[in-house]
Amino acid sequence: MDLNKLKDQLQTEVDTAFLYDSIAAIQSDDALTRVLRSLSEIEKGHAKHMHDKVLTVEPAYKMPPPSSRAKFQLKLGKIFGYTSIISSLSNIEKQFAVNSIKNKIKNGEKPTGFEHNHLNIIEAVNNNAALNVSGGLLSKFESRHKSVGGNALRASVLGSNDGLVSNMSLVMGVAGAAVSNNTILLTGIAGLLAGAISMALGEWLSVQSSRELNQRQIDLETEELEASPEEEKKELVLLYQAKGMNAIEAQKLADKAFENPQTAIDAIITEELGIDKNELGGSAWEAATASFVLFAIGAIIPLYPFMFLDGKNAILLSVGSSVIGLFGIGAAITLLTGKSILFSGFRQVGFGLGAAAITYGIGSLIGVSLAG
User: Fold this and answer.
1) What secondary structure letter does DSSP report for 279?
2) Is 121:57 a contact under the CB 8 Å cutoff?
3) Where do transmembrane segments lie in this chain (predicted)?
4) Rg of the chain over CA atoms, in angstroms?
5) Pairwise CA distance, residues 335 & 84, whole Å
6) Structural domains of the chain, ranges and CATH numbers in brackets
């Protein structure tokens, strides 16, 4: 028995229960609160089971409190939106389901099909889908906490990281060649603008393509609804059942949706395609602007010291500022990966400094070669 692994699993269960409880505490809808509280109680049961296993090896081991990472994640949820936490919980439940199936197969047991139940429930909340509580209720939950969410958090972290690492490497490479501050600044600004524009263009194309694809899917579904409404209703009933409803409830909800063509197509777009008709993938210009700004914020960190210092002092401040920025990005990545803040922070610092050291060394060799 791997005691450290068992303790890690116990901490994950404790953190998961804590986050479910914390999100449930801010709800005004009783039905949604009950769903989240029930998930929390189940996770607490899992935690107790894990704790009992640990006690067989280490009798004095106490049930751990929620980790600092979970508390930090909850605080950031107030800024980035609680959907970022729901997305994280969805990833945890997915891993739990995979591990459960692997263990059953390893022990010669047959999976029951219920291993993904928690994942289905939390993803239904995350995707504003139909549960044994009304779709309208979950829609209100989603709109209350929409804000930035998990995908935007991921984009902001990765965009800032790209800007910081790429421009730090570029600046260090030029600095290694022992050129003037003006040349370093000009190169760094050019790298910042080129990278930010490239990121913005790429994001614009990605979002705009997504919007066009979503609109095409909506048009196709509208044509199918007009051609064979009964077949579309049957598909919607099956979809509701796949999300946890019994046959009677699914049929009633589908009948309600098909009372008129507009509500019918709205239900199909939401449930079958998983598309928000009002968003269609978001604004391409907003995404492009955000990518430009986030990349530029990261890229300015290693560059600004050369605006008022020169030589080694500028290089040292640039490296120091970049280390702080890289550690912060690594810490933010823990919201997506579940790793410890110190591990992710120092790993990011290591990768960034490694890239900078390589380009600085190459720059030095080129500078010496040109000087000779």
Assistant:
1) T
2) no
3) 184-207, 287-308, 314-337, 349-371
4) 26
5) 8
6) 3-144 (1.20.1260), 151-207+284-371 (no CATH), 212-271 (no CATH)
Which ranges of 82-148 would DSSP assign to H, the alpha helix?
A: 83-106, 117-126, 135-144
Tokens of 118: 């928690």
Residues 6+ apart with CB under 8 A from 324: none
Question: pTM for the complete prediction?
Answer: 0.53
Residues contacting 63, CB < 8 A, separation 6+: 10, 14, 47, 48, 51
Which pair of tokens denotes residue 17? 């229960």
Query: Cα–Cα distances in Å, from 253 out to 51, 228, 352, 369?
Result: 42, 19, 53, 75
Instruction: Give ∠ CA 232-238-243 in degrees, rounded to 5.
Output: 125
What element of type H or E holds 308? none
- Return the half-sphere exposure (C-beta side, CA atoms, 13 A cut-off) of residue 129: 24
Determine whether 75 is exposed, middle or buried from the number of CB atoms within 10 Å of its CB (0-12, 13-18, 19+): exposed
Provide the residue-wise pLDDT of the chain in tens; the chain has 372 residues.
578 888 888 888 888 888 888 877 876 666 667 767 877 887 888 788 889 989 998 989 999 999 888 888 777 776 666 565 666 666 666 666 656 666 666 667 655 444 444 445 555 544 443 333 333 333 333 333 333 344 555 666 777 888 899 889 888 888 887 778 888 899 999 999 998 898 888 888 887 887 777 777 777 767 767 766 777 777 777 777 656 677 788 788 888 888 877 777 777 777 666 666 655 556 778 878 888 988 999 999 999 999 988 888 988 999 999 999 989 888 877 766 666 778 888 888 898 889 888 988 887 887 655 444
Q: Which residues of 310-322 are buried (b: 16+ CB within 10 A; e: fewer)?
A: eeeebbebbbebb
